[in-house]
């Protein structure tokens, strides 16, 4: 007792050699998903650190150094298919150097290939679909030295076999804390890789999520895999967050990471009315 459990969340770097000249289109942006996970864990008393390996062109040597110095009990990777070489290499090295560290994996690749990731020992726990509730339950169990093999929305190993727990209940978006942007304060993100937006401010743009899910099911998109149903936050809730982030970090440029925002003219008008009512339309882009 006395020691707070530490959780390291990693946004893995891409393989630059494999990307070739496409590399310049991969400008780092603040990882909103990890910032949400970090906020949920911090609210529950965990000590969290987000390592944006991609933003600093970091290597797995750097990651091993951070794990050695900081001593997390769990390391969670955000898994998109094009960073899996990095994740698999990091996982092998963690297993070899820090056998007591538990490895978690989430995001789109993990949602599509949970069985394979457990079979190949890439992760101890794979979190499918949205991860806030699942990572909290896993980390609470690990904090109590228990083995969290029954968490909904996760795939793990139990008794030598792959165990695929049921799909989780959908998260109430209004219950989530605001993303832990303070965890990303040390990174220099570039506002816009192609200079598409005439920014009025040098302030780092930050993301707002006004909804999760999409009413369409396009074959090329993963939205309906990650989020099974559309959930929309109230305009007041969205503007509350925007106002809080503006006051706290001085942010004047925001981007919506919803599949579609607004989802309807009604939602768009309600959001605009709320912005105008508070005078925020004159302060932010």
Number of helices: 10
Give the topology string: H per helix, E per strand.
Answer: EHHEHEHEHHEHEEEEHEHEH
Distance between the termini: 47 Å
How would you sum up the global shape? globular
Give the biggest beta sheet: 7 strands, mixed
Poorly predicted runs of 5 or more residues: 193-201
> What is the typical, i.e. mean, pLDDT?
91
How much of the polypeptide forms β-strand, as a percent range? 15-25%
Q: How would you write the strand order of the largest sheet?
A: 2-1-3-4-5-6-7
Q: What does the oligomeric state look like here?
A: single chain
Helix amount: 25-40%
SS-based class: alpha/beta
Q: Radius of gyration from the CA trace? A: 19 Å
Total beta strands:
11
Layout of helices and strands:
Blueprint lengths: L5 E6 L4 H4 L12 H12 L3 E6 L7 H11 L3 E5 L5 H14 L4 E5 L1 H5 L1 H6 L5 E3 L4 H12 L10 E5 L2 E4 L41 E3 L2 E2 L10 H4 L4 E2 L2 H15 L4 E3 L8 H13 L8
Parallel strand pairs: 1-2, 1-3, 3-4, 4-5, 8-11
Antiparallel strand pairs: 5-6, 6-7, 9-10
Helix pairs in contact: 2-7, 9-10
Descriptive tags:
seven-stranded mixed sheet, 285 residues, globular, alpha/beta, two-stranded parallel sheet
Q: Your description of this structure?
A:
- By secondary structure, the protein is of the alpha/beta class.
- Helix content is 34%, strand content 15%.
- The chain has helices at residues 16-19, 32-43, 60-70, 84-97, 108-112, 114-119, 132-143, 223-226, 235-249, 265-277, and strands at residues 6-11, 47-52, 74-78, 102-106, 125-127, 154-158, 161-164, 206-208, 211-212, 231-232, 254-256.
- Strands 2-1-3-4-5-6-7 form a seven-stranded mixed sheet, with helices on both faces. Strands 8-11 form a two-stranded parallel sheet. A two-stranded antiparallel sheet has the order 9-10.
- Strand 6 and strand 7 form a beta hairpin.
- The protein is globular and about 55 Å long.
- The N and C termini lie far apart (47 Å).
């Amino acid at each position: 007792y006395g020691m707070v459990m530490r959780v390291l969340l990693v946004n893995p770097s891409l393989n630059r050699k494999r990307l070739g000249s496409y590399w310049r289109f991969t400008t780092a942006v603040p990882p909103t998903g990890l910032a949400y996970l970090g906020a949920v864990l911090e609210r529950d008393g965990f000590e969290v650190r987000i390592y944006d390996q991609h933003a600093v062109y970091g290597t797995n040597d750097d990651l091993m150094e951070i794990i050695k110095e900081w001593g997390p009990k769990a390391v969670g990777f955000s898994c998109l298919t094009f960073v899996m070489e990095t994740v698999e290499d990091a996982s092998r090295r963690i297993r070899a150097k820090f056998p007591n560290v538990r490895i978690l994996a989430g995001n789109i690749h993990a949602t599509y290939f949970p069985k394979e990731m457990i079979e190949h020992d890439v992760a101890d726990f794979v979190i499918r679909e949205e991860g806030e509730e699942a990572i909290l339950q896993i980390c609470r169990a690990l904090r109590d030295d228990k083995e969290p093999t029954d968490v909904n929305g996760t795939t793990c190993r139990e008794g030598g076999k792959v165990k695929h727990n049921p799909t989780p209940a959908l998260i109430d978006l209004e219950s989530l804390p605001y993303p832990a942007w303070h965890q990303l304060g040390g990174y220099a993100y570039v506002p816009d890789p192609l200079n598409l937006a005439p920014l009025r401010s040098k302030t780092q743009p930050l993301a707002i999520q006004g909804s999760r899910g999409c009413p369409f099911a396009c074959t090329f998109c993963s939205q309906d895999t990650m989020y099974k149903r559309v959930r929309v936050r109230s305009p007041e809730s969205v503007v509350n967050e925007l106002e809080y982030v503006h006051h706290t970090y001085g942010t004047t440029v925001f981007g919506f990471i919803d599949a579609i925002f607004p989802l309807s003219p009604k939602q768009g008008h309600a959001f605009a009315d709320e912005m105008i009512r508070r005078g925020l339309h004159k302060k932010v882009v």
